[in-house]
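Hi V.,

You were right to ask for the full record rather than a summary. Here it is.
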Amino acid sequence: MSWFRRNKGDEASPADEPETTSASSAADDDREDNAPKGAPAPGDVYDRSNGPWDEAEADPEVTYIDLGAIRLPAREGTIQMRLEIEEQTNKVIAATVQLNDSAVQLQAFAAPRTSGIWDDIRAEIAASVSRQGGEVDDVPGVFGRELLAKVPARTPDGRTVLQPARFSGVDGPRWFLRAVFHGAAALDQEKALELESLVRDVVVVRGTDAMAPRELLPLSLPDNAHPADGEGEGEGEGAPAEEKKDTLRPPERGPEITEVR
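Predicted structure:
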């Protein structure tokens, strides 16, 4: 498994990424949330009995890769890992797992104690994608309701194209896990199976700190992280800033779409 600190711009990268709403105070995390919610249709509520897991539910016999708020099950084979870093803060903001021609981006967020947030986030992402000229459908999926989207993206030569993406979300105890499938896994059920299995085995470490709902849970580099071929020593030499692939920001108030620079 290879570790990438930053992506190179050798593929089309999302022109923008949907953002959602953040709370104004960390105290809201423990507040009763009595805001009216749209009731999901029967069968749309995801049963977490097969994962993803809370830290208290983690299997002690499984070997995990510790990324801070997210622990990934160690897998052998052709899977590669990319850790996405916000250049302004140098913080790890997402983990992307690549398998052949498919990928899934993972981010974990704080959530209220008494209610899930995926219904609201899903609606905001759908509105944001549509506003940017993309296409989106809200459909039932393996993790409950999900969005099948075609998101505006820029190619290395500056053209804008529509790229397929599948937005999935899972509400857990005081946390929310977002998984965005790209490539073949966004379109082909068979090719998505292995990455979906990996998402089910993810462990989210919420921690005990009070945090605002929708605040990104902190990620970190694992102790044994090493750069992939062509990275590491001399990083930045011969690699202009414009060649670094844009990363995706966590949801915040808006929902405006913003690039990380």
